[in-house]
Amino acid sequence: MIVSVHQPQYLPWLGYFDKIERSDIFVFLDNVQFKKNEWQNRNRIKTTEGWQWLSVPVIHKFMQKICEVEINNTVWWGKKHLNALVTNYSKAPFFKGHIEFFEKTYAQDWRHLVDINIHMIEYVVKALGISEKKLVKASKYESREEPTERLIDICKHVGGDVYLSGKDGAKYMNLDEFSKEGIEVIFQDYKHPQYSQLYGNFEPYMSVVDLLFNCGPESLSILKKGE
Predict the structure, then answer these.
(1) Domain regions of the chain by residue span
(2) pTM (2 decimals)?
């Protein structure tokens, strides 16, 4: 049983979904410290002028966990994000097949960042055609605070005997501890594939919506080319 673990991000890049596709169980690491100005509340889309950020405004306190972070709804951010998608992707071949989901999503009154992140990730998993996976929150389980111990605890809770780590995992994990617990560690080393985009030269590391809008039913096979 292959398990992967990652913080819930906002409209993540292709490598995030490669992790989900290669795992039997994917765990949203929502009970660790929120890091502002990383990928938990923002991501990038391609425009005629290059790439731009889509950032969800948040209200948070220092040391607050991701699952506790609230969205700042005094800012009209949802309409802005929707307009950005329409402006930059309405001419993409498969945009029309997905825009209704985003219209409905941005029309909702989201309180916590984690909820909209997971809602969008779950939609993209289905839209890509990734075979059914078990997606769970780490906050459902008791786990220790030290990074290696936390990951081992999560694997045990969900019945995993293989942990799929990001390529830099060895820098902070104690691999011997995994071995002692009978958990094999494998590493993701995702190579970003190229595909047809709007607006000139290829721009890698965009949000997955760039792939979805441009490539539609071919998106999953393209995503897998990076494995």
Answers:
(1) 2-224
(2) 0.96
